[in-house]
Amino acid sequence: MTTSMSSDRPLSPATDESALKRAFSCFPSGVVAVCRSTDDGTPIGMSASAFTTVSLEPPLVSVCVRNGSATWPSLAGSGTLGVSVFAAHQGEACRRLAGPTEDRFTGVHPIFDESGAVFIPGATAHLACTVFAEVPAGDHVVVLLQIESLRCDPAVEPLVFHASSFRALETRRAND
What molecular function does GO assign, one term (predicted)? Predict the structure, then answer.
């Protein structure tokens, strides 16, 4: 038995921001941390749920950053960025990296890479990336990141963000 929304319900205009946010929240996404080290060795970073794979050749991923982000200009400078794909148990670290700047690494013992990338330990994947391109896109900028090196463990369950909540993945039988 399948359930679906009523097709006789009228569509909301895309200018209705709350309806648009609700619609965007229907799409589950992974959540990442984007971090690097400053010249004095201090970690800076943020979490992002608008992340996706883009290309194998060249190896690209993308992250969307809100215009006016106070953190992105510090991250976008020269150097390598660490992208950590949060694991299922890392909801608190993800929330912290989305919170006040001074508290983002409280309780987190980041991994510092010699490239300047900073990673969150225990993540399902670590990608060392450089900025490939930035594309203005409405109230955000789409940042294309070129992967320079990586490590991953697909056996580690990822953190999934859906309908403004963290969710768990479920393995389904082939006939579901």
Answer: oxidoreductase activity
